[in-house]
Amino acid sequence: MEEWTLLIRVLIAALLAGVIGAERELHGRPAGLRTHLLVGTGAALVMVTFALTARVVPATGLWRELVRVDPGRLAAGIITGIGFLGAGTILRTGDWVFGLTTAASIWFVGALGIAAGEGLYIIAAGGMVIGLVVLTVMDRLEQRIPSAVRHQLVVEIDPRAQDEVLSAVDRLRSDRSMRIRLTGWEVKEGKDRAALRFRIRHRGSVDIGGIASTISGIDGVYSLRLE
Fold first, then answer.
1. Chain region(s) in the chain for CATH 3.30.70.260
2. Alpha-carbon gap, residue 16 to 109, rounded angstroms
3. Which of 28, 70, 178, 204 is the most exposed place for a label (fewest CB within 10 A)?
4. What is the pLDDT of residue 135?
5. Model-level pTM?
């Protein structure tokens, strides 16, 4: 009878993980329904298997000294293993990072599986609801918030014009919706040219063309490139 009770825990973990996985599948994410089902169910299986085997070890006498049962370490091992799995879904291209939410959802269903495997049904169900709200409602809210946009601006100048260019950049920094930071400086073609590299970060619409024309209008600026 006890094994059937533990099996119910595994089935509940599969159900909760499946709800999160279905949402990821609907959005065409690389880790969808099957991945989330396997992670959540696997985490619950480990916990219930531990619950059964722990009862085999006598809790008295010499066995108590030789064998120490610590479910916290087991859960930590599950979470660590899932972390490596989630890392495989993360892709970085330049300043862009993809797959973080999917990696977090895989880790999240692992935690749901642990909770369900321990028989914490209300906590597991509540966690699933919170996760679903974050992935659906918060996604729509996030789309309405202007995201930060980054640009790399490379300016080739006569080294003697450097102070004037930096002064112009300081004046542009007065726009509070935009941040400009000097990230690099190098001499090119002997000492006749220098390249200044700036990082521009802003939210909403910013007249990048106006910034470029302001800097390019300075005497001693040879070229300007936006990346």
1. 148-226
2. 8
3. 28
4. 85
5. 0.62
Tell the residue number behind the tokens 């007065």, with chain if given.
174
Cβ neighbours of residue 11 under 8 Å, at least 6 residues apart? none
Collect all residues with Cβ–Cβ distance below 8 Å to 43 and sequence separation of at least 6.
Answer: 13, 78, 82, 109, 110, 111, 112, 113, 114, 117
Measuring CA to CA, how many Å separate 10 from each of 51, 105, 118, 200? 12, 19, 10, 50
Whole-angstrom distance, CA of residue 44 vs CA of residue 50: 10
Note whether 156 and 222 are within 8 A (CB).
yes
Residue with tokens 């001499």: 187
- 107: tokens are 């880790």
Torsion sign across C-alpha atoms 3, 52, 36, 129: positive
Report the candidate in 43, 23, 166 with the shortest Cα–Cα distance to residue 114.
43
- Residue 105, amino acid: S
Query: CA 68 → CA 5, 54, 59, 64, 115, distances in Å?
Result: 25, 10, 9, 7, 21
**What DSSP state is assigned to residue 146?**
P
Q: What class, spelled out in words, does domain 148-226 have in CATH?
A: alpha beta
Span 59-107, pLDDT tens digits? 555 555 555 666 667 777 777 777 777 677 776 665 566 678 888 888 8
Specify the higher pLDDT residue, 45 or 62. Answer: 45
